[in-house]
Specification:
single chain; 4-stranded antiparallel β-sheet; 384 residues; alpha/beta; 6-stranded mixed β-sheet; 10 helices
Length: 384
């Protein structure tokens, strides 16, 4: 069975794999596609059995080789104004519209479309396909695969994570930690406000602390190769209170840090934890011993930091036919792959991040063509 990258992409887009839903129909389709070509796959389901990752090896003797890594989940379409069905690939003027076409089913499609050529080639080094779930909600789906492979002593020469970079080689991205701070105060009538513990007030002070830290990070170390050259702190959600005349008992603050890979993410978290437990909480408990602050982790993604002179970087530039490289503020699975598997990793894939997550998301056909060429040259390299 031979399919073009566009044909595979049309099939992948047709599966609604929004992170809140199952991705099993898509994974089963990939498994059957590979099985028809004589390639066996390993399916690693999550605890619910509703989602799964897929891992497959093609050619060679099964050692070393190259990982082609991508995620199968996509972001929601609710509340977005699409010109056509987001789960039906539409072509117009060289643009391929559909949810996930850019982020990042385009790369997955190119990788799958090249499997027949991998099988025909006299590979000296194998290809490893690794497709995950729940990247969009914290890069959690790839981790069981990585820990399983690491436990088996798996090794690879290089990994290419195909997030949309317009086939530019990305050698670094920031580390990220996101947390939910839950404040429990003491409710009372607002006319007696000092007798209560206003959870919103204390939540607001945490937000102010985060803003202060954001200013300090902006004035700290920087790297001009990043699209945003310094580390950041950000509050995304704050909610609490029920009525004006009630001192609020509960408040929730959701925040994140995105830190240069050369800087300490842990230091940022230690600072905010110290502020919450050593400054805010003692004040709250002067009024009520039941007052509390919980810092609950959402996700943590290690940064990627690959040397410009590393073999994987030099190879990726050669395959992409360009000499430039970049560093990005957004996180990917690349940092986890490099950290857990110790495999040299870069991010390089078709499409522009500018199109990701938007209504009428699209990828240019020319981007798929560039990715096809990249993989063709990688196959040749694996035969050398």
């Amino acid at each position: 069975m031979t399919m073009t990258s566009q044909e595979v992409l049309a099939k992948l887009v047709s599966f609604d794999t929004v992170s809140a839903k199952t991705n099993l129909p898509l994974i089963k389709w990939i498994e059957e596609y590979l099985n028809d070509l004589g390639v066996s796959s390993s399916i690693l389901p999550d605890e619910t059995g509703e989602k799964a990752s897929l891992f497959a090896t093609i050619g060679g003797d099964g050692t070393d080789g190259y990982i082609l890594s991508g995620h199968t989940d996509v972001v929601p379409v609710e509340g977005q104004d699409w010109s056509s069905n987001p789960f039906s690939l539409r072509e117009e003027d060289g643009l391929l519209y559909g949810r996930g076409s850019c982020d990042m089913k385009g790369f997955v499609a190119c990788s799958l479309a090249k499997v027949p050529e991998m099988l025909k080639a006299p590979l000296n080094k194998p290809f490893h396909l690794m497709f995950s779930y729940d990247e969009e909600t914290g890069c959690t789906g790839v981790q069981p695969v990585l820990y399983k492979l690491a436990g088996e002593g798996f090794q690879a020469e290089a990994c290419f994570v195909g997030e949309p970079t317009e086939m530019q080689v990305v050698v670094a991205h920031k580390s990220k930690a996101s947390y939910r701070a839950v404040f429990t105060g003491l409710s009372c009538h607002s006319s007696l406000a000092p007798q209560g513990v206003n959870a919103v007030h204390y939540g607001a002070r945490l937000v102010a602390k985060l803003e202060e830290m954001a200013r300090e990070l902006a004035a700290g170390p920087s790297d001009d190769l990043f699209d945003l050259p310094y580390s950041t702190a950000h509050t995304g959600v704050m909610k609490g209170g029920t009525a004006l005349n009630i001192v609020p008992e509960h408040c929730e603050v959701i925040f994140e840090f995105r830190v240069l890979p050369t800087e300490s993410l842990q230091a940022c978290m230690d600072e905010i934890r110290r502020y919450a437990t050593e400054e805010l909480l003692p004040e709250m408990r002067k009024v009520s011993e039941k007052a509390d602050i919980e810092l609950i982790p959402y996700s943590e993604i290690p940064g990627l930091d690959t040397e410009v002179e590393a073999d994987v970087t030099v190879l990726a530039k050669k395959l992409a036919g360009r000499n430039d490289h970049a560093k990005v503020a957004y996180g990917t699975e690349a940092g986890l792959i490099q950290t857990i598997l110790k495999v040299p990793t870069v991010v390089c894939g078709p499409g522009s991040i500018e199109q990701a997550h938007k209504p009428d998301e699209y990828i240019k056909q020319s981007e798929l063509d560039k990715c096809d060429g990249f993989l063709d040259r990688l196959i040749q390299h694996a035969c050398a």
